[in-house]
Amino acid sequence: MVASQYLPPWFSVAPMMDWTDNHYRTLARLISKHAWLYTEMLAAETIIYQQGNLDRFLAFSPEQHPIVLQIGGSNLDNLAKATELANAYNYDEINLNCGCPSPKVAGHGCFGVSLMLDPKFVGEAMSVIAANTNVPVSVKCRIGVDDHDSYNQLCDFIYKVSSLSPTRHFIIHSRKALLNGISPAENRTIPPLKYEYYYALLRDFPDLTFTLNGGINTVDEVNAALRKGAHHVMVGRAAYQNPWYTLGHVDTAIYGAPSSGLTRRQVVEKYQIYGDAILGTYGNNRPHVRDVMKPLLHFFHSEPGNGLFKRKADAAFQTCKTVKSFLEETIVAIPDSVLDSPIEEAPRGREDLFADVHDLLPPPYKAREQEVLYAY
Questions:
Q1: Which of 12, 48, 59, 190 is deepest in the core (most CB within 10 A)?
Q2: For residue 370, pLDDT beyond 60
């Protein structure tokens, strides 16, 4: 596929481990036709070692375009081979994870956010990835790591990577990462958001494209960021934990396109056809009903009957062997008024989220020549 045939990634759903799998992306695409979707991170080694079973990890339906594959790794040969293997699946972009703070990834794995401490390697890695694919490449990173958290240090990273490789797109999670002492979940909340760093990058690197990520929960807030000049915006957990009201407004409110017009009942009916078709196709009876239905457990977030639906789901997981039978046991908990109503007005966002951001910008970055020489 050619990414340019799609509308720009003004709104994308963040790559989230154990969440943005094929099942979730299928549900997401039924709700929004234009949001850009990301896979969960796949280690390059996983792709290589699973060559005989790649469909389980890389296959997706054509309807999921536009879609980005996120890979992780710190071995150039493995990154090259994994990218080459992924080409057959026609992703629209390849993204390298330089932002995950999990100890398994950034610690023992020596990749994820720890790669921000070695921009020369990231530049080499992005060159290798780009050399083995015909689609655009990008980097997802934090604004810093531990004490390496000044704006100039972030700019040094961006400057070196973009100077050493064809990378022209960076997704910026506007928090730094703390590698010791706090959990990945705490790394999403404890380090403060610094949106001013993101907007300063737009000023200091006008030839690059940047996507803003971190702390943005509604379409209203996405539009607020775009009005302040953000190129693109990425939303994470809100798009998973409240998919109907988050994704359901993307096409109209962000892209000015028509709504799909589907009700929640119609989305569930379409998802059931997908679910029953994919059950057991990975081997060893996987995926199970529980795997396929996991993203649907958030589909009725805060609606009447949601609690009863989840309790019925817990019981149905024990006995149901098909998605159809699961839904027959559980969907009765949701009132017809919820299932058959068109989507309501989008939740309001925080109006002051970016109010003073341009007053907080750090001083302009001036690339030091020795930084480039060091990078080479």
A1: 12
A2: no
